[in-house]
Design a protein that fits this description.
The complex is a heterodimer of chains A (106) and B (407). Chain A contains 3 helices and 5 strands, in the order ββαβααββ. By secondary structure, chain A is of the alpha+beta class.
């Protein structure tokens, strides 16, 4: 198990213990983290698991694929920190990673 | 309402302590317009998973831990049949009644309709529709909220999204009501086919004349590199119609009934509208709507219960948010409950409701606009909210009253 730290748009921290080898989106939706919907189940077809990963942690991740970049185009509030969390696999290396949730628009 | 009589051999092989043969969810009494509470009261003295012979015969799972496990395990609990009585729709409705991995290809067709950007673009239209409705009822000082407000919004938003004429809303609402509340398979299947037949003329139109609307997205959709078949288009377009009408309207009814009865909660939202999104999540937890089911894919023992291949198992999702093992003081609504607010109201796992953001935005804009115009309101004296349990927990009648603003 590793620890993921989700931060709401207001900065409220929610800690999630996640198994290794699942996606960050799955870890978030299984804990009902508000703002991470994962509507398509991790199939790169909805952009509802969009989050921000700070540069310090982003360096530990594989860069986004062309398909991920195309889907991010359908997301809101995209910045250079934007990633789709369904494309990030949990691993020991990501223990303690901060995941910031974009403004919730509903 | 009559129950279906197509009892499958069931209770004979069910351990007697797990059999509640005459439990008919369509007949759960809802004396005060609170179906989620009625579900809790009707099931809390029963075994966590029990069998009934009614509505074709099915199991009912009533605890949060089991509801969640079943939602997340399509290998053992398939979506192939997920409405009661079994065979309710009479047509397949992709992606809803498909399991992974097939599910994902269909889901990818409709996902753009609900992308964050697409839903954000709808907000202005939603706000205009809601303002018009409120302007219409406010001077009267009372309304029947279900017919005059909550049913108007989702159908109008749906018709606009699909590029269909608003004049068709009354006819479609009648079909949607049958789709949600009828129990006889002939009636529910007929309603579903009537919806598909209604959409078919426009489906053919969009093939010839693609437009910038959701129906075109479905008609032009491709799975695994091939165009959708006619049957797939019928199923998917009908699902879009059926999925967001009574569900959203009933949630709005539940929420407005709650706020009418709880002035202190209402005042918190009037004083601080920024609290509205979080309050919506909490009220959705307290008032889950959908009473879906799954079909068991093989014989196995689950929590000591002998399930058989082909058994239907119902997971009333309101019971998830009302389980004291998952939520402290579950009957209490607390807008400051610590996050995350546990809820299965939109489902969990790959089948999570694609219209979740859209439904929430409709409810948020309703509350923002309503509370700005009508901050004080109550259940109209002499009336009682009328709700019932069906495939979803449905609000049928909710009279609200207030003092009209001076004009």
């Amino acid at each position: 198990m590793i620890t993921l730290r989700f931060f709401s748009p207001e900065g409220e921290e929610q800690i999630v213990q996640a198994a290794e080898g699942i996606s960050v989106m799955t870890a978030a939706t299984q804990s009902c983290i508000p703002g991470i919907n994962g509507d398509c189940g991790g199939n790169l077809s909805c952009a509802t698991c969009h989050c921000y990963i700070d540069a310090a942690w982003r360096g530990k991740l594989a860069p986004p694929s062309d398909m991920e970049l195309a889907m991010l185009d359908g997301a809101l509030d995209v910045t250079e920190d934007s990633r789709l969390t369904c494309q990030i696999r949990t691993s020991a290396e990501l223990d303690g990673m901060s995941v910031r949730i974009p403004p919730i628009r509903y | 309402m009559t129950a279906t009589v197509t009892c499958e051999p069931g209770s004979g092989r069910v351990p007697p302590e797990l059999a509640v043969p005459d439990f008919d969810f369509f007949a759960i009494p809802v004396p005060d317009g609170d179906p989620a509470l009625a579900w809790k009261q009707a099931t809390e003295a029963l075994p966590p998973i029990f069998w009934t012979d009614m509505n074709g015969g099915h199991w009912v799972a009533t605890r949060a831990v089991d509801i969640e496990t079943i939602q997340l395990d399509p290998d053992r609990f398939s979506m192939r049949y997920m409405a009661l009585p079994k065979g309710r729709r009479g047509m397949r409705s992709p992606p809803l009644d498909f399991d992974p991995p097939e599910h994902a290809s269909y889901r990818a067709v409709i996902s753009p309709i609900f992308s964050p950007k697409a839903v954000a673009r709808l907000e202005t239209n939603i706000r205009t529709v809601i303002r018009d409705v409120i302007a219409h009822v406010e001077p009267r000082g009372e309304c029947e909220f279900v017919d005059e407000v909550s049913h108007v919004l989702p159908i109008t938003v749906f018709l606009d999204m699909m590029g269909l004429p608003r004049e068709d809303s009354d006819m479609l609402l009648r079909l949607s009501a049958l789709n949600t509340t009828a129990t006889e398979l002939q009636v529910t299947q007929r309603a579903r086919h009537d919806m598909a037949d209604y959409l078919w003329r426009d489906v053919q139109d969009r093939r010839a004349n693609p437009k910038d609307d959701a129906l075109t997205t479905v008609v032009q959709g491709r799975v695994d590199g091939r165009p959708l078949t006619d049957e797939e288009i019928r199923g998917m377009s009908t699902l879009l119609l059926a999925g967001g009408l009574h569900t959203v309207a009933s949630m709005m009814g539940n929420i407005m009934r709650f706020l009418a009865l709880h002035p202190a909660h209402r005042q918190q939202l009037v004083d601080d509208p920024k609290l509205i999104p979080r309050a919506i999540d909490e009220m959705i937890r307290r008032h889950g709507i959908a009473n879906t089911a799954r079909i068991v894919t093989r014989d196995f023992e689950f929590r000591g219960v002998p399930l058989r291949q082909g058994d239907m198992i119902q997971i009333p999702n309101c019971l998830y948010g009302l389980d004291p093992e998952r939520v402290e003081n579950p009957l209490e609504v607390d807008f400051h409950r610590p996050l995350p607010i546990p809820s299965a109201a939109f489902g969990n796992g790959p089948h999570r409701c694609p219209g979740m953001a859209l439904g929430r935005i409709e409810i948020r804009v309703l509350l923002e606009e309503w509370l700005a115009r009508i901050p004080q309101f109550a259940i109209k004296p002499g009336t009682v909210p009328r709700a019932a349990v069906g495939t979803s927990n449905t609000m049928h009648e909710l009279f609200l009253a207030w003092t009209p603003s001076a004009t």
